Amino acid sequence: MSRIYGTHAIGDLLASVPESVASLLIASETRLDAEGEALLARARELGIPVHRVDRREVESRRGGRGGASIAADIRLASAPALEELSGAPGEPQLVMVLDGVTDPHNLGAILRSAAAFSATAVVVGKDRSAPLNDAAIRASAGAVAHVPLIRVTNLARALKTLQAGGFWVYGLSADADQSLYETDLAGPVALVLGAEGAGLRPGIERACDGLVSLPMPGRIASLNVSVSAGIAAAEFRRRSGSGN
């Protein structure tokens, strides 16, 4: 279970995806302001447990930053084993794979897009990958409760496992000749995105079935990886013919 801090962030989750909040923790000596009291009342209305705990418990996962008086434990989507992911030809199933994305805000935003476009899972490496910390959870807007995050030891091997499960694996690369918009996305499909700036590692590119690009006719030739992920996920959902 992961944790998020602050009345604004927790309030947003209670308003939009209350099922993602497992419990509230409030530092025992804290005197809540009007916003905090409203948050507490809303949590109780929703049947969410509220615990008064020592401040050190509230701050325990903040890396020594301190300053926290209220936190929420977030319920994460259950992550299946990678080998359990499989699909039949033509099945509109999407898995998003991240190669070297280390910014928690990008990870959270990608999880949010994955949830919005009904992705099956997001796969990341155990190394060279952003942590699922409070910044990532805030950026995900509660998506962590709906989209499994699967961490793997070897990303190239994970792609082979997905291929064995029936997935076509496409890596997004600015240098690719084939456009994502011209690619057969009937599914099941795994879309692989690299770190901003560095892009996909050569070994990961070789492990893909093909490389595709996002055409950008404007004056800006690159996008943040989370924006690219959102566009790619939306295009998959449109091209796969599934609106659900």
Q: If you had to describe this structure to a student in words, what would you say it looks like?
A:
The chain is an alpha/beta fold and 244 residues long. The chain folds into 2 domains: 2-74, 2-Layer Sandwich (60s Ribosomal Protein L30, Chain: A); 82-239, SPOUT methyltransferase, trefoil knot domain (Alpha/beta knot), CATH 3.40.1280.10. The protein is 32% helix and 21% strand. The protein contains 8 helices and 11 strands. The protein has helices spanning 7-16, 34-45, 55-59, 104-116, 134-140, 155-164, 202-207, 225-239, and strands at 2-5, 21-27, 50-53, 70-74, 94-99, 121-125, 149-152, 168-172, 178-179, 189-194, 210-213. The strands form 2 sheets. The chain has a 7-stranded parallel beta sheet, sandwiched between helices. Helix 2 links the parallel strand 2 and strand 3 (50-53). Helix 1 (7-16) packs parallel to helix 2 (34-45), helix 4 (104-116) packs parallel to helix 5 and helix 4 (104-116) runs parallel beside helix 8 (225-239). The longest helix is centred in the C-terminal third of the chain and has 15 residues, at 225-239. The model has no long low-confidence stretch (mean pLDDT 88).
